[in-house]
């Protein structure tokens, strides 16, 4: 049984998951950039 409520809850869950992954990716990318910059200085 697929209702509009199920669709909305699923949509919110997907958006929430994508947001968490995007934040984690941005944070890791930033750390990677700094780590590479530090390696270049030495």
Characterise the protein shown here.
With 42 residues, the protein is mostly helical. It is built from one helix and no strands. The termini are far apart. The model has no long low-confidence stretch (mean pLDDT 86).
Summary?
With about 40 residues, the chain is an all-alpha fold. It has one helix at about 5-40.
Low-confidence stretches: none
Q: Can you count the helices?
A: 1
Shape: rod-shaped
Please state roughly what percent of the residues sit in beta strands, choosing from under 5%, 5-15%, 15-25%, 25-35%, 35-45% or over 45%.
under 5%
Structural class: mainly alpha
Largest pleated sheet: none
Percent of residues in helices: over 70%
The total beta strand count reads 0
H/E element string?
H
**Mean pLDDT rating:** 86
End-to-end separation: 61 Å
Rg result: 18 Å
Characteristic key phrases:
42 residues, mainly alpha, 1 helix, 90% helix, rod-shaped
SSE topology sketch:
Layout lengths: L3 H38 L1
